[in-house]
Design goal:
Distance between the termini: 36 Å
Structural class: alpha/beta
Number of helices: 12
Number of strands: 12
Radius of gyration: 19 Å
Shape: globular
Strand content: 5-15%
């Protein structure tokens, strides 16, 4: 496994080019299994874990913050805080909705407590809050940087216009500038990122960490027909991809995967890793057994013709 690291924009953070998603912790992975996943990821050279204060409030019996709690306990037991980079997010926790100044500060304190750390390495505005002036939100994030509670700022699910506005405000007031962007981007969701977000990311040197990198499992090749998704938990999430174009793309991925002797998911992540400004895709593993296919993407370099084949097969998803 590679030991290479990539810089997160203009920050001093250096991270492994495959990000471990923490959305399964306390949801589809219990605490024991979550720790096994974390251990396996770090042992393979990984150092960047992405979570959010809302994970996983949607699960029955959960209140939000379960992922951070599990991650915090693991950090305490392993005593490896200095070896990992932690990203978390604010705006969606049931008790801390939105991005008002006071809410951002209070939510950050709660995340710090759950994680058991003194500083959050990368703190994302999870979803834009149009009810709060952007000046107020940007000021709150800068306040956290100045207080040493967060090291760097990230934006997730923001439009290009709002990203540009955040930068304008930050420069005008001398606030810390965002260094990372977390958008929805993969082989079957290309249009918005490539047309609107990528130019801004390039211009502002934002490190891009795409989520839904495997399109809710569609890009693992597990769905070869609409019937394969029937009755499955993620049927609704992959419904838009269960088309002739979607299955043709999976076939193209399969062809490249077989040429390299790797899993389809490995190829899908490798393609994403080489897109403009992408520092590393985010991928989750419910069990340690799912990790090898994800980790292998870091060492897979696609040939020019292979990338062209995937670009062409996924062209219907650039609209």
């Amino acid at each position: 496994m590679t030991d290479k690291r990539v810089k997160v924009g203009n920050s001093d953070l250096e991270v492994f080019p495959l990000v471990l998603g923490g959305n399964t912790f306390g949801w589809t992975s219990d605490e024991v299994t979550s720790r096994r996943v974390l251990d396996a990821y770090v042992e393979a050279g990984g150092n960047f874990i992405d979570t959010a204060d809302v994970y996983s409030a949607w699960a029955p019996g959960n209140a939000g913050g379960e992922s951070e709690i599990i991650l915090g306990r693991w950090l305490a037991v392993r005593a490896n805080r200095d070896q990992v980079v932690i990203a978390t997010k604010v705006s969606e926790h049931p008790q801390y909705k939105g991005l008002s100044h006071d809410n951002v500060l209070a939510a950050a304190d709660e995340s710090l407590l759950r994680l058991g750390v003194e500083t959050i390495d990368l703190y994302y505005a999870h979803f834009d809050d149009k009810t709060t002036p952007l000046e107020e939100t940007a000021a709150a994030f800068d306040e956290l940087v100045q207080a040493g509670k967060i090291r760097a700022i990230g934006l997730s699910n923001y439009t290009a216009d709002r990203i540009e506005e955040w930068f304008r405000i930050a420069r005008e007031h001398g606030y810390a500038l965002p260094v990372a962007l977390e958008p929805h981007y993969n082989l079957v969701t290309r249009g918005n990122y490539e047309r609107t977000l990528a130019p801004v990311a390039v211009r502002e040197n934002l490190a891009v960490f795409p989520y839904f990198s495997l399109a809710a499992g569609f890009l693992t090749g597990k769905y070869r027909s609409a019937a394969d998704a029937e009755g499955k938990a993620r049927q609704g999430m992959v419904a838009d991809y269960l088309t002739d174009d979607g299955f043709a793309l999976v076939d193209a991925l399969d062809e490249v995967a077989k040429a390299h002797g790797v899993a389809i998911a490995t190829v899908a992540l490798a393609w994403l890793r080489h897109r403009p400004q992408v520092a590393g895709p985010i991928a989750s593993a419910r069990t340690p057994e799912q990790l090898p296919a994800l980790l292998a993407s870091v060492d897979l370099d696609l040939a020019v013709d292979e990338t062209a084949t995937l670009d062409k097969a996924s062209e219907p998803f650039t609209k």
